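Example for tutorial group B:
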């Protein structure tokens, strides 16, 4: 059986590239975005009542990880990237049908637009469906997952004075919690687990219209170097 699905909207996200996006929703509450609905879902009718709901499930397409040949085994970053596991035991992006699912906070509902926070979605992500989070059914008190039993331990994020000032200024300009966003994302330690970079190696990522640079002055420690408006 084959069945065609088509997007009901696209996410406009603070995340402009895959690197440094948290590996699950809720890990960075300051990660915000907006789901822009496509016709015929953009008139307000399809979201009527949703203002009574605090969180929604988004079913979406990993549009930048689509592959023709399904993988049976994947190497989750959570396990250091060197241990393979059955694709269905993981939340890996490379999977049959390329579907992802995230519970995100619904900040505001407008006709044709849902304002979201705590997202783990790339800018432009096509959304296939939206469903309200139903606590009595979706919270499973005795659930367990021995592969991912706790959130990743955060690492310490320090700032240069200049980077802190820049983050503050850009936060005011963008009306976004830029400092918190950077801290929450970098505390997840975005580098691949096998990389042990020397202190002089600079890392960078694009968040909103900003280029953020940091380095690892010591193992398990990040220092944000600068937060500058991107050239393009
Ligand atoms: N919560 C979802 C799930 O369980 O299906 C996503 C989990 S997946 C491990 C999270 C990662 O997906 C992020 O760190 C980001 O790098 C990647 N990602 C997010 N949006 C994507 C997209 N549209 N295409 C490809 N990769 C994406």
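The residue assignment follows.
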């Amino acid at each position: 059986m084959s069945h065609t699905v088509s997007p009901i909207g696209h996410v406009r996200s603070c995340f402009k590239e895959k690197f440094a996006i948290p590996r699950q929703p809720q890990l960075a509450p300051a990660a915000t975005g907006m789901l822009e609905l496509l016709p015929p879902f953009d008139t307000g009718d399809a979201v009527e009542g949703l203002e009574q709901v605090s969180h929604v499930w988004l079913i979406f397409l990993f549009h930048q990880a689509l592959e023709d040949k399904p993988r049976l085994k994947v190497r989750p970053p959570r396990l250091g990237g060197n241990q393979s596991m059955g694709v269905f035991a993981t939340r890996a992006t490379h999977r049959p049908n390329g579907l992802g699912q995230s519970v995100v906070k619904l900040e505001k509902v407008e006709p044709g637009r849902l304002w979201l926070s705590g997202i783990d979605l790339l800018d432009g992500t096509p959304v296939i469906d939206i469903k309200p989070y139903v606590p009595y059914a979706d919270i499973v008190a005795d659930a367990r997952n021995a592969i991912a039993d706790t959130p990743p331990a955060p690492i310490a994020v320090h700032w240069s004075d200049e980077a802190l000032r820049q983050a503050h200024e850009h936060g005011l300009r963008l009306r976004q919690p830029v400092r918190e966003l950077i801290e929450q994302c970098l505390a997840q330690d975005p580098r691949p687990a096998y990389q042990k970079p020397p202190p002089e190696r600079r890392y960078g990522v694009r968040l909103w219209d900003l280029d953020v640079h940091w380095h690892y002055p010591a193992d398990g420690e990040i220092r944000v170097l600068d937060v500058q408006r991107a050239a393009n």
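The first helix runs from residue 135 to 138. Compare this with the pattern of hydrophobic and polar residues in the output above.
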